[in-house]
Amino acid sequence: MWQWQGEKLFYDNELIGTACSNVQQDIAYRDEIKSIEDGVFQITRTLMNKEATAISLTQCQFTFTAVYQAEETIIPAVMYNGNNWGEGAEPKGYEVNGEPYRFAYHRVAIAGATYSASKEWAVALFGGHQTTAFACALQPTDEATLHHLYWPLQEGPKVYSARGMYSEEYKEKVELAPNETVVLTAYLVVTRRSDSKQPGYAKLLDIAWRLDQEQQEARNSPRVAYHQPEALWNYGVTYARESLWAEDGIFKGFSIGMIEQAGELKQRPTWKYKIGWTGQNIALGCALLYDYIRNGNQSSLEKGLLALDSWAEHARLPNGLIRCHFDYLLADHPTDIEIQDACHLGAAATHFFEAAQLVEQCKVEKPLYRQTALAICDFIVQSQAKSGQLAKAWYNDGTVADPEGTIGAALVEPLTIAYIETKEEQYLLAAKRAYDFYYNEFLLTGYTTAGALDSSCIDKEAAIPLLKAGIALYKLTNEASYLQAAETASWYLASWQWHYSTKFPTGSPLAELQYDTHGGTSVSTLHHHMDSYALDFVTEWIELSELTGNKQWAERAQAAWVNATVGISDGDLIVNNSPKRPYGSQDEGFYHTNWCFSSEKERSFSVSGWLVAWPTAFRLNVLRKNSKWDKL
User: Fold this and answer.
1) 284: how many CB neighbours lie within 10 A of its CB?
2) Which InterPro entries does the record associate with it (predicted)?
3) pTM of the model
4) Most CB within 10 Å of its CB: which of 61, 335, 342, 427?
């Protein structure tokens, strides 16, 4: 039974923690704490200026001190167990010279949220994002864990303002007029960890999601996609077929994307052609084949086949690997440093299996597509370690270039497809062994790593294979443990998803674009900006909702979909004084927080200007895998 005795919170007779307030003396205040459901408390603070003159709000703090040493700590999308994994220069640890890192609420996937857990209890604190802007901090000690909320908005002791870069701390100015009253809201969530099979932070994510849903319903302002599926299909196919299409020597396929060069938007001139990840050549080839099946467009069929043939005919290596960067085949790059990584290879094998099915529907014979996918899977089976571990990357001769990183799990899903295609047990056995290795590693550390290939850090992308392969293995084996694992991975992915809408400064590019953070995801602990990468698992979240009966996964899928439909150009779109953007193009990155704050050109609350291929490919993947388009 929950009970507050003054500032102390008890469960039965067990002390959970203590609430503490720190407000400047010239401002009167009143706190009210009420229970809104089991273990969830709403904290309402009323500030009052009773003076005859205006008062600057400089110090208003609420702290809940959990009376335990934390074994797990999270600031969603910002910090996981102190960010100690990886070689990046992102914030590591929770303090700088004894002073806690303070992060603006809009930097965090749940507004100003902090989470900590002992073996028995999990505690989380977050702010009501509809109130005055604020900040948060988390301070684990040997004896207790302090969760802080601060008003007004501030960041310090230094601001993480660009990749590996920091700028000076800052604090916004807020004035209370004479007799003005301000109401602030926060929520405290406490969970007994043994009460659920899911992560301790699942309750935090669930309540934050539901509170936002309730507020939206109360405002009668549902969030809807900026474009309907048919329009989105046309945008995607047109951008791929016209703006991204490239013919370069023996290569015929898709550019990685467009960027401004000398006042014009052109295809990027270097490292141009990738099989998966940011380039998504095989997925785009599949999308054009599907466009021919759906709409009879002969140009789509021709270009789809040309792209797939370029890779299958020219990029395969004798050991079964396929070269993931076609640039090595076109220019004088030193091939002794060339590596083929699990992220690209997993996408290549998966989509070549799909291409083999699509060409049958197109009445075209292309046995090489299926052979290419199986060759990748054969290499993986043969190179798998006894532990089940695969690797992050290999050299061309098949030796391991980098064994570490959860992203090795990206090869599990194509192994399950290989088993379905051939009924050969070696593929299923390898898939299960690899999944067990990477999932158990995830449970041990509490995070996933190395999915963002240009970084060495904790991220969300490497957890996507744990969701996808978990569902695939559940459907193959009917073993409930795989479905539970997929859902556990989903809660982790959800910790990177925005549970609210951020209000951007008037006149900023994101305000003009009407960008809505709700449903989007941050990239990694090293990159504090948002993208639409959740598109990659929209289909799996829809399926997970059906398999578990939890409607929130479908809601999250739809929110990710809606977020990913903003900012697609109709051919006349101009953002941040750029040239007109090509029809169907879209930014990769959205700077939702103080990002690039320290650069000469202020770019906070702006966009990346990088019209990369993968958002288009991922949207088309979702549309062709949910062909009725009724759940989007």
Assistant:
1) 30
2) 6-hairpin_glycosidase_sf, 6hp_glycosidase-like_sf
3) 0.97
4) 342
